[in-house]
């Protein structure tokens, strides 16, 4: 028997979950957020500022048809929300370039050094890894950069796919559906990353991943710090 699960999330909300990493000029038409970031004068945006900004967003219903015969995918959405100005790949991944980088593009075999943040975009936009946002408590601004070799399948498949073609300094928003997200058998995220750096982040992520009645779509904001090319001897030449 068919039933419906309603979720309220506006496409307008998505740009507000973009971190203010880029120091260069954003590409034409790109929208960056003053939420979860620092103001131009260097002062930090407070949680109250963030809530005030989010309260002004328009909400629109997304109706997700579901079937009791679908087992684990009981509440997986049959209709994926389309976001303006995003490019959709055949895998279901959508991405948007906020800042274009410079230099060689990332290809298979390259080691990509990157910074990232993540949000449960399908479930109230809760952060499970925050960068450039409210400091202190669970959020640490001095975390080490992540690294992955493209083609090694060390990170979420949908995110790895989105790294191809990026350049050093580039910032990209990536919407990852559950089918190309974190694997169900690795809830400690030690086999497939990136792994949230805090307990609260891990809990926020797993709450969504373990609940098939929720929309488990995730948003990643990634900034490529550099791209290291293979040196032919099993190592890499720093980019």
From TrEMBL:
Keyword Signal attached: yes
Coiled-coil segments: none
Keywords: Isomerase, Rotamase, Signal
InterPro entries assigned to the protein according to its UniProt record, in alphabetical order: FKBP19-like, PPIase_dom_sf, PPIase_FKBP_dom
GO CC terms: chloroplast; thylakoid
Source domain of life: Eukaryota
EC number: 5.2.1.8
PROSITE patterns: FKBP_PPIASE (PS50059)
UniProt cross-references to Pfam families, sorted A to Z: FKBP_C
PPIase FKBP-type domain sequence ranges: 109-208
Record's catalysed reaction(s): [protein]-peptidylproline (omega=180) = [protein]-peptidylproline (omega=0)
Entry GO MF terms: peptidyl-prolyl cis-trans isomerase activity
Signal peptide start-end: 1-20
Protein name: peptidylprolyl isomerase
Organism of derivation: Fistulifera solaris (Oleaginous diatom)
Lineage of producing organism: Eukaryota, Sar, Stramenopiles, Ochrophyta, Bacillariophyta
């Amino acid at each position: 028997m068919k039933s419906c699960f309603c979720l309220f999330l506006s496409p307008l909300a998505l740009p507000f979950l973009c971190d203010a990493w880029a120091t260069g000029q954003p590409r034409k038409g790109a929208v960056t957020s003053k939420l979860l970031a620092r103001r131009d004068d260097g002062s930090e945006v407070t949680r109250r500022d963030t809530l005030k900004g989010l309260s002004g967003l328009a909400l629109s219903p997304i109706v997700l048809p579901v079937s009791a015969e679908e087992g684990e995918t009981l509440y997986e959405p049959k209709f994926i929300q389309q976001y303006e100005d995003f490019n959709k790949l055949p895998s279901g991944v959508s991405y948007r370039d906020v800042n274009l980088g410079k230099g060689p593009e990332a290809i298979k075999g390259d080691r990509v050094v990157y910074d990232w943040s993540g949000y449960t975009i399908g479930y109230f936009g809760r952060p499970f890894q925050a960068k450039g946002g409210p400091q202190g408590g669970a959020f640490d601004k001095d975390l080490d950069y992540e690294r992955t070799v493209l083609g090694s399948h060390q990170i979420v498949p949908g995110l790895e796919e989105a790294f191809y073609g990026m350049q050093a300094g580039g910032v990209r928003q990536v919407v990852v559906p559950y089918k190309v997200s974190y694997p169900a058998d690795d809830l400690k995220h030690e086999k497939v990353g990136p792994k949230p750096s805090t307990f609260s982040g891990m809990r926020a992520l797993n709450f969504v991943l373990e609940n098939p009645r929720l929309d488990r779509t995730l948003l990643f904001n990634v900034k490529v710090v550099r791209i290291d090319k293979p040196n032919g001897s099993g190592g890499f030449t720093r980019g």
